[in-house]
Amino acid sequence: MRSDTFMPTLAALKDQAKRLKSKLASDGETINHARALELIASQYGFKDWNTLHATAGNRIGIEHLRPGASVSGRYLGQSFKAKLLGITGSTAAADRYRVVLDLEEAVDIVTFESFSAFRKRIHGTVGPDGMSRERTSNGLPQLELFW
Question: pTM here?
């Protein structure tokens, strides 16, 4: 599944490793953090964590993205691919960016079986790592961007 185009940030990758370690522990399998990082690297098609770390760490920052750029990510837990329609620095905090995304396919943001709410256009605020400060009820960022 190796894809250098749509790569999560280092913070997101480390968060995935923490969640993996926690999930495995809840299932009765104990691994250390280093092993969790190696498993995440393998999941993304890299031979080890150091190679994945170097690839993810050498990405350009969000401040270099321009309208029209292709991004992927998750919104309320739903994966998406999108076109960046707009990006502006937040006046409230210099390290926050307001983004407008046009999703290739609408995502259903409701998990209730007998009700749906689809979104094709998303407005959100993210940090330099592409993650929103706002969290869902299960602790995940509401919006995560990968570029």
Answer: 0.60
